[in-house]
Design brief:
This protein has helices at about 10-20, 25-35, 50-65, 80-95, 110-120, 130-140, 155-160, 165-175, 190-200, 230-240, 250-265, 280-290, 325-330, 350-360; strands at about 40-45, 75, 100-105, 125-130, 150-155, 180-185, 205-210, 215-225, 245-250, 270, 295-300, 315, 340-345, 365. The protein contains 14 helices and 14 strands.
């Protein structure tokens, strides 16, 4: 199905041509007609399936037709990276259309706050916002959303995991009750079902590739002692030459340490973490995207908030705490019908977590041979290698590893 089949307005069609969009993805084929029909929607689709365009295109088309000069659409997202990503996509798609947008997120300057205030009081067509920052503006009393037509919750499951439930409810209390509400989530746990029941009216439901890694991702894993990980990582980087490698670690402290270690060893590496100013984060992502920074180390803040189609390799330096997070990490490679490699380093106390990942995706991931130079390694035997039951010094989280994300209270991270 091509985008011409949707009969979009000429200004939008021209923007799609400019962006090189030709064939719709499955989520776009199913979601766009529903949104154009003004029906509420709950869509479950993994990262990299084209869901951003699935909601932006029909909303932009309707804004062009309405010719309104008010805030028509509010998109709420969990992280500043995702807000920026959607705003950048918006600017390209709507380049020839009379539609304005602004990303609103924490950590920016006072000058940016004033720009946000003007947009919220005077009416940018589309506002993309993180919950905490938007509430800061709402509390000051000048936000005008009385004519809002569309509310979109993107990465809804991640927002609930980050503890934004109360913030979402507060934001929604400021919005018109008569509106079209669209919810996009990578997973569909009971808490998302409940949220959908509370917010949506007779929603149409779409499920696309639930809990499966991208088909083009070649997956593998090494079983090692934690002390062997750095040497193994160096071996992997040297053996698999690619112009873009994204390394996920479990905590900000580990990300910083790994970044320093890799640069000491001669790798052109950088890192993304919450201690960086927003301008620094944007510059590092820009360098990684244009391939002048081939190695990037990050926490899970980037597992859903980076839009780069050609990441050659993803390395899980630490096994993710939740099995679903593995899907999002691996989803950073093999996007948009490309191929890529995803490698995980499994420590002795991570084996049961990794076993849950294999159960979730419905297949066993190939265990690769560790180089002999690294010395003896532990056997992969999840039943004999329990997870640690004590608080991790690195993570700052006190949950027990044998609880699923649905069994423990969500960790409220810093408001974005």
């Amino acid at each position: 199905m091509t985008f011409n089949d949707f009969n979009f307005e000429p200004q939008l069609t021209e923007g799609l041509g400019y962006m090189g969009f030709k064939t719709a993805t499955p989520i776009q084929e199913q979601a766009i007609p529903v949104i154009l029909s003004n029906r509420d929607l709950i869509a479950c689709a993994q990262t990299g399936t084209g869901k951003t365009a699935a909601f932006l295109l029909p909303v932009i088309n309707k804004i062009i037709q309405s010719k309104g000069d008010y805030t028509d659409t509010l998109i709420i997202v969990p992280t500043r990276e995702l807000a920026i990503q959607i705003d950048e996509a918006m600017q390209g798609i709507a380049y020839f259309a009379p539609v304005s947008s602004l990303a609103i997120y924490g950590g920016s300057s006072g000058q940016m706050f004033e720009q946000e205030r003007r947009a919220l009081s005077q009416g940018a067509s589309i506002i993309i916002a993180t919950p905490g920052r938007l509430i800061s503006h709402l509390n000051l009393g000048y936000v005008k959303m009385d004519q809002l037509k569309h509310l979109i919750l993107d990465e809804a499951d991640r927002m609930l995991d980050m503890g934004f439930t109360d913030d979402l409810n507060k934001i929604i209390s400021f919005l018109p009750k008569k509106r079209q509400t669209l919810m996009f989530s990578a997973t569909m746990p009971p808490k998302i079902r409940k949220l959908a029941k509370d917010l949506l009216t007779d929603p149409f439901e779409i499920n696309i590739s639930l809990s499966k890694p991208a088909e083009g991702a070649v997956q593998g894993a090494y079983v090692v002692h934690h002390a062997q990980k750095v040497k193994l990582l160096v071996h992997i980087l040297n053996e698999n030459k690619t112009d873009s490698t994204l390394i996920f670690s479990s905590s900000k402290a580990k990300v910083k340490e790994l970044d320093i270690e890799l640069r000491k060893l001669g790798f052109n590496a950088g890192s993304i973490h919450s201690d960086l100013e927003q301008d620094q984060r944007i510059e590092i992502l820009r360098r990684f995207k244009n391939k002048t920074l081939p190695v990037l180390v990050a926490t899970d803040v980037l597992s859903r908030g980076i839009d780069i189609d050609s990441i050659g390799m993803v390395i899980n330096y630490d096994v993710p705490r939740d099995a679903e997070d593995y899907i999002h990490r691996v989803g950073r490679t093999a996007r948009a019908s490309t191929t890529g490699m995803a490698i995980t380093l499994i420590g002795p106390d991570d084996q049961r977590k990794f076993q849950r990942i294999e159960k979730l995706i419905g297949s066993e991931i190939n265990k690769l041979q560790v180089p002999e130079s690294l010395g003896p390694c532990p056997a992969y035997d999840p039943e004999k290698n329990p997870e640690k039951k004590f608080k991790s010094k690195d993570s700052g989280h006190g949950h027990r590893g044998n609880k699923s994300s649905s069994q423990r209270k969500p960790h409220r991270g810093p408001k974005k």
